[in-house]
Specification:
alpha/beta, 13 helices, globular, phosphatidylcholine lysophospholipase activity, PLC-like_Pdiesterase_TIM-brl, lipid metabolism
Length: about 325
Amino acid sequence: MLGFIATLFVAYSFTSYILLRRPIIFLRRKRLPFEASHISHRGGSGEQIENTLEAFSSSLLVGTNMLETDCHITKDNQVVVFHDDTLDRSTGVSGLVKEFSYEELPTYLKVIEVQFTPDSYHTTLNLHGLELPGSFCIAESPSSYKIPRLEDLFNKFPNTPINIDIKVNDNLLINEVARLTETYNREHITVWGSMNSKVSKKCELRNKNILTFAPISYVIWIMACYVVGLLPFVPIKYDCFELPLVSVIRSNEFARRRHWDRFLPHTALLLSDFVLSSPLFIEHLRKRGLPVFFWVCNNEEDMQKAFELGASGVMTDYPRKLTEFLKKHPEYPKVL
């Protein structure tokens, strides 16, 4: 009996490994209709004020393939491109985005912290007599930076792939983002979703033709399947994976502020890093037609690590740095 079980286990393990290397044809997904090795996080928030038309335009000038952004909805039902649900950090005005009409929204501050900057980039900014540790983006123009609407992006960049993170569980927001995507005929070059599985599910149900990225709970499930050898047999319903480069999250001030350096979160990050740092895991997803994008890579070391793991592309706050890196390393992204 033990011999039979051992034989089954060996056969299962062997089959799983072979299919990790050579995925079953019917489990492969249709590839995205565009390539995106260079993705500008919030439009490139280390070089221009985040999520502004100026940032998006600047990143496209240096060769970005896809813009990454976030959406909220205002009191008068305008979908705006903005990261936080509150205005405080980026505008200095207290309140929720949804409490203001679009015309009432304040403009951006002229100095905003870059949240995913590596520790080595941290400096001390003297602002009005206050010494602020961290890394900051300082506005290049003396004019005000207005919070744009999603429609403004679609109008200005009609042929540019855009990745939209739906930040809150709001049915009207989801419906309006879908409606705008449909109106501008860009379902094939728009990727949307949320880290929240409930929001992600609503996005899927609202329009199955808009490309989707996997929420965090689904990523954890797929990681577990990989660990036990089930991944080659499991269908995947999303169009791409957007994964954290865990070493970035573990090492910088951004993590410490969120107490991710405490025992349980730190242990979870270590376990995640074990799987997400496996080139075979990334290779399998890509061979199944699923691009894998790592975030947020802001220095050459992180960019190199992500591409060495097999990333299809990386998100960065510094588009110029990523452009320079890719020029120096034409071998990336790796061809499978």
